[in-house]
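Let's study a protein:

___
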Amino acid sequence: MPRTSKNTQSKSDQLKAARDAKSEKQIIAESDTARENIWSDFNECKAYTKQLECKLSDKVAECEKLHSNLQNSQQKLQQLKAAFDSLQQKYNERYQELQLERQTAKFRQTKIERLEEQMKVLKEAETQANRKFSKYACDTKASLDYLKATNSGLEDKLAVSLERWNTELSVTTLRLGESKARRMELQKEVTQLRKQTRRSTDIRERAVAAAKAKIEIEKSNFHLMKKGVFKKKTRNLVQILVRAGCSRNYINEVIVAVLKSAGVDVIGSISRTSITRILREGYIAAQIQLGHEMQQTEAMTFSADGTSHRSINYVSRHVHLMAEDYSKSPDGGARRRVTRFLGIQSTKDDSSEEAIKEWESSLNKIIELYNQSPLAKREGIELKFIRLLTKLVGMNSDHCAKEKKDARMLEELKNWAVEQSLGEDAIFELTPQQIDGLFEKAQKEIIRNAGGKKKWEKLSESAKSTKQAGMREKILSDLGKKELEKLPEDKQ
């Protein structure tokens, strides 16, 4: 038994040694294969590394090329930016010149029309002066013959009359000469203005062509001011925001935020004080525009309504008329019906007399602003209260008895204005002798009503002026009534 176990153990040791030798041989074979694989992988990695180095050198060269191209592009961009700034500046200058030329052409055209109207007036005045001169000459000759035949003792008065008529004749002849000279000067001015208008038209066409060629340049900045003055667009924007209910304290922030959202940078700022001044200027411009529209229209109607709050009376007033359609026809050709707001005013009481005073006050404020405006002075037109009332054709209100009384009082005021207007037109048709006769008769009547010449002389100058003003008003009213009766019913 012991020997058998030893043999068995030796066999097992041999088997184990054989197995270890076999495993060592396999490990050596595998290590040789792995070394060969690693060497081949190393060669492949080395070749790939060379390829990457080649590509890296190519990329470095390409990067340097792109860097140089980038620098060139930046230089070109700066040059284009400078060119863009210069083009934008030239565009703004050309646009300003275009606006100035357009305004100049419009002003010249208006001046030509006004000069033509003045030429017509001068021609009519010349014709009337010739007629009056002939009539005065005939009257003078007839008066001279009559005076010689009837009374030889009136030679002194006749000499005075002849001297006066000769003076008037010389004055009339001098005026005729001046009117002819003035007409020749106006004709020369019209010819020069027409030539200048043609030249300005050519310049304007060239400027328009240049502006159209550069209008595609985008504007990225919005200037609130120009030469220290807020632009018209800025003023219009402020008025729109105020009408929309925006507070004056936040208008500048709203403008900046809205334009920034549109990609436009705002240059400058506007304060609450400037906004208040812009609104005040807008109110004055609106009053002047209303006066211009009242002067241009042929008829208009009024409307009013009132209420009270805490024992204070408030009245809202409007005027309805035909005015220019500024959106469709800037030159004033198209017209449409409009309603203009005259404002809300507080009154002392709720009487009709006070309402008529407020109407007169509102209209006189409009008349005063319009007559002082450059527009009225440039047009050579003066708006008058009487002429304004003659265009009133109706009153719109509710069924309140007070409003009906207001309408009746306005109708009486309009009738007075019509009589005064017709009287002013009629008195210019009278001869100087007829006018002197009317005033002498009226003067005698007011002296008689005052209690005689002595009492009249005792009156103060202000009292005399008041009575004489009433006398002149009564003369015009009487003449106006007679002229109104002569008109047909449809004209009345």
Observations:
- The radius of gyration is 49 Å.
- The chain has twelve helices and eight strands.
- The longest helix spans residues 2-150.
- Strands lie at 221-223, 225-226, 229-230, 265-267, 300-309, 312-324, 335-347, 392-396.
